[in-house]
Amino acid sequence: MLGIQDLPLFVASGLLLNMAPGPDSILIMTRSAAQGWRAGSAAALGIGAGTCVHIVAAALGLSALMASSSWAFTLLKYAGGAYLVYLGLLMVFSRAKQASQAQAVEPALRLSYRKIFAQGFLTNVLNPKVALFFLAFVPQFIAPDAPHKALAFLLLGAIFNFNGMLWCHGLALVTAKASQRIRLSGRWADALNRAIGLMFLSFGLKLALGERT
Q: What confidence tens digit (pLDDT) does each residue in 92-149 have?
């Protein structure tokens, strides 16, 4: 269909790649633990929307143009790294507050679902390595003589994103359930929040300072 080949291998590989830890997964787990599975789901949907942008851009050739342009890649890389560093600093210098046995998050730390969606979207769409990933991975499953390569790319991208959303929402649900059972004191909650913030800082610095791959 549309020149797509080895579809079962594509699905299996895509699921494994989606399970790999990274900024997207950490963001989903952080929001789910702080505000419940709906917040994690909002982050996942934002990530999915960012992935859609990368898929369409790659199918239309925009990602290939960015990959061949050193300044465009560098600009997006620094923007993405700066945003991850920003998220990390917010978490490192924020303080969680234990408010009742349910350990509700301090109102100042609570975010609307719209803001959480935006966090997920920006975390994903500002990462140029996601665009390069699609350019490198998806074409391997499209036959050289495919009649409609762009359509095949879009279909494979949609399948990859759908499977990714299943994993991300499952991760949000499991994390939220686990956080309900594991009650942390304010001190431990602060320490965990800062540890996650440091992870975002490392992701951002790695993205901004890393070489193109």
A: 776 544 333 334 444 435 788 999 999 999 988 888 778 878 877 888 888 878 788 8
Please state the φ and ψ torsions of residue 11, each to the nearest 5 degrees. -65, -45
- Considering the chain, what is the average pLDDT of its residues? 78
Q: Which amino acid is at 43?
A: A
Alpha-carbon torsion (173, 177, 179, 180), positive or negative: positive
The answer to whether 210 and 84 have CB atoms below 8 angstroms apart is no
Which tokens sit at 193?
A: 């929040």
Residues ≥6 apart with Cβ < 8 Å to 75? none
What is the token pair recorded at 42? 């909002």
Three-state SS annotation for the chain: CCCECCHHHHHHHHHHHHHCCCHHHHHHHHHHHHHCHHHHHHHHHHHHHHHHHHHHHHHCCHHHHHHHCHHHHHHHHHHHHHHHHHHHHHHHCCCCCCECCCCECCHHHCCCHHHHHHHHHHHHHCCHHHHHHHHHHHHHHECCCCCCHHHHHHHHHHHHHHHHHHHHHHHHHHHHHHHHHCCCCHHHHHHHHHHHHHHHHHHHHHHHHCCCC
Nearest-10 Cα torsion for 64, 57, 154, 160: 90
pLDDT of residue 45: 97
